């Protein structure tokens, strides 16, 4: 019997819900505002209503297997409770999973949103032809997720994949995590803005200063990127720094895990054309494992592909590439999770 | 029927061979000099003779399952050939595994020596009560091995676990791997010696200078350690640097993999008492995942245990500890490898 699953991306701003079939086709999708201020119980009730409505609409597509819910925060995989979730106050130490499962009468899996995005890219996106990959999401912060042999690597307590807080420069800028010089301090949208403000304050970035002070325009990482592609040197230098940090990070990941593929997503990944050349320079210099496994031919990449990649699927080469699913990665990845559990229990039946 | 396996530690200097039973008991052990200069075929013949002899001696202990061979160098796990092995010239791109298997008439597994040591500690040593661990070996260089869910994590081409070449300080000393500021440049015996020579050259380390110039004494990392435990400040500062680098490395590993246990072995690990306090300071500061999973009570450790550990086996705490098996870790780990393959095929038979 054909079947489908529900994927939920529960952000601090938006609550997005999708029904996805086992081949990865999107059946239905709905976006609601997350009314965080009205409290946890309100949001859970609204989410469950929307899931039931979506499921009913899709009933012709078969059995509803369950729901996967991507949440910004750390999930203790032993208890399926949120440990820390600054954007969802009042949700920690509450049996979120059990409560939603009870209301839906179907299996529910909670997952960190960066891990869900990694699973989405691994299932249907840039890493669909490989078993093991790491996703790096460059947003307001830098998140990450590791997929090994097709499954999210959670580690001991579900906190694995925090690549954004790996140390790039031990004496670098302080991070709210307590460390100094984290990846997040060089490669997030927040870091791009900070570096831009520093450049403006130095008096050596007149175009950036003009852009920052323009009326009716919100100063953003995207604006810095626009100046960079127009050739403004101070703006280019900022993305050079982004690429430098990502090159060191990926060299570390390659040396440690020797995975097939590293996928870069999130808003800042749109600046690929300006940060990826210095990123690959740094990576080649810093990882002997990459040197031994880099694609043989360097070709001019099509948009969205690795500057070093030839044919990811056919060779044992380390591929660094852009994410393909955009903000839907987390939705698809979340929907995939109950399918995997379902397949496993089906296999147990057969055996 | 009871059985045993052969573990081989094929170093550039010594060839050590052991017969180990399935409970991890050592049945027999022999150490030969590795006559590398006499060429690959000579060494392989000698190894196979010694393995046969040892197996015959142990025949009362049951069936010989096979042999695991730990080799210094990178092994391509797809072909079981050596890719690079500076200490074993002429061994690369030769079917070492197939040739030994043919001569012994038993299954043979080739493994990188640092991975074999990790497996040894995971099976019988410091990490025997956990499923997932990372071993860091501080010797002439810094090696590493990652065990996930009881199995060595090889990555795509068998090159995973190169923790010694992760970047600690992007602008640090150059490494022969092509990178600058690798862990190996701060935490190996070679690095300790380099830092000692630098301190002597600065003119501010009179005791180190005296020790270095003493007749009949070879200047070594151990000598620097001896001065450090006697309270010599320049010598202590060197191990502070070792601890600093290891703290950054382990914070990265914890943030990325969230493993149960990190085991530090190799000759330099004997200096635990002087490098571990700054290592734990750095780790606590730099890893929020460690902060969330550190043992609750800090107790004064017994020799060989983590300065932060309480009871590794009973809690979901991140434990950093010293290796327990010394230079035998690689021998035991190598012997374990054919047993794992044997168990797997036995299970297949049953199913």
Describe it for me?
The structure is a homodimer of 351-residue chains. With 351 residues, chain A is of the alpha/beta class. In chain A, helix 3 (113-124) crosses helix 11 (329-350) and helix 5 (189-201) packs antiparallel against helix 8 (233-257). In chain A, the strands form three sheets. Chain A has a five-stranded mixed sheet. Chain A has eleven helices and twelve strands. Chain A is globular, with a radius of gyration of 21 Å. The interface between A and B is large, with 51 and 51 residues.
Strand order of the largest sheet of chain A: 3-2-1-4-7
Helical segment count of chain A: 11
State the assembly state of the protein chains: homodimer
Rg of chain A? 21 Å
Largest sheet of chain A: 5 strands, mixed
Distance between the amino and carboxyl termini of chain A: 19 Å
The largest interface is: A-B, 51 and 51 residues
Q: How many β-strand runs of chain A? A: 12
Overall mean pLDDT of chain A: 90
Helix-strand makeup class of chain A: alpha/beta
Strand content bin of chain A: 15-25%
**What shape does the CA trace of chain A take?**
globular
Instruction: Give the ordered list of helices and strands of chain A.
Output: EEEHEEEHEHEEEHHHHHEHHEH
